[in-house]
């Protein structure tokens, strides 16, 4: 069974990707990540985006800290 993370963007907004989400819900936590999560505001709504910390090879698992 895969681990699904929830993300608290603010005290009011939480992303629970099981109900609605995309393939990023399968990203894994890592002590040596290749991505970084950031929250930006789009049209007054907090939105989580991921930035690559380095070049990521085709087929490589996406990880974040």
TrEMBL record:
MF terms (GO), sorted A to Z: metal ion binding; methyltransferase activity
Location within or outside the cell: Chromosome
Superkingdom per UniProt: Eukaryota
GO cellular component terms given for this protein: chromosome
InterPro entries associated with the record: H3K9_Histone-Lys_N-MTase, SET_dom, SET_dom_sf
SET domain: residues covered: 1-65
Keywords assigned by UniProt, alphabetized: Chromosome, Metal-binding, Methyltransferase, S-adenosyl-L-methionine, Transferase, Zinc
Single biological process term from Gene Ontology: methylation
UniProt-recorded name of the protein: SET domain-containing protein
Lineage: Eukaryota, Metazoa, Ecdysozoa, Nematoda, Chromadorea
């Amino acid at each position: 069974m895969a681990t699904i993370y929830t993300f608290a963007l603010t005290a009011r907004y939480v992303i629970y990707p099981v109900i609605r989400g995309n393939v990023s819900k399968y990203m894994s936590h890592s002590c040596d990540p290749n991505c970084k999560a950031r929250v930006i505001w789009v049209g007054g709504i907090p939105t989580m985006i991921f930035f690559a910390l380095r070049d990521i090879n085709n087929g490589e698992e996406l990880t974040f800290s």
